[in-house]
Specification:
The protein is of the alpha+beta class. Helix content is 19%, strand content 38%. It has one helix and seven strands; from the N terminus they run H-E-E-E-E-E-E-E.
Length: 137
């Protein structure tokens, strides 16, 4: 009886390990990293500046990060996709806006300069759906 129980426990643990390995394999290649720097027009580091990162199109999410004392920033394990980063001044006005793409297992580096403004992408409105016809009896 103990031998059968031991075999069952070993089987269940082995199955659990296989499932964990398979679930980890699915997540490989689905994230990348972002690093960069922010400087003013004279090349001086802009420290403690709030950066807003938003997804574009099918990439969903909003994140806020801040540049460090040397104007550098990083964000790790971002889902792959297209994003837009906006640096905001103390009054929440954009001073930099740039689009970028995160690729699987790669690091995207952005060297941002104050005044570098790319129009923020907008999502085109969908047409108003036509109501379904009312059935007649």
């Amino acid at each position: 009886m103990i031998k059968k129980l031991l075999i069952l426990v070993i089987f269940l643990l082995s199955s659990l390990v296989v499932l964990l390995l398979l679930s980890c394999e699915e997540n490989l290649g689905s994230t990348g990293n972002l690093t960069g720097s922010l400087v003013d027009e004279q090349g001086n580091a802009m420290k403690k500046v709030k950066l807003k990162i938003t997804g574009v199109g099918t990439t969903i999410g909003i994140a806020y990060i801040t540049t460090n004392d040397t104007g550098n920033f990083s964000f790790y394990s971002m889902p792959t996709g297209d994003y837009f980063i906006v640096a905001l001044d103390a009054n929440e006005n954009p001073i930099v806006s740039v689009g970028f793409t995160i690729e699987a297992d790669k690091t995207t580096t952005l060297n941002l300069v104050k005044g570098q403004l790319t129009p923020t992408p907008t999502i085109a409105p969908t047409s108003t759906p036509t109501p379904a016809p009312t059935p007649t009896i």
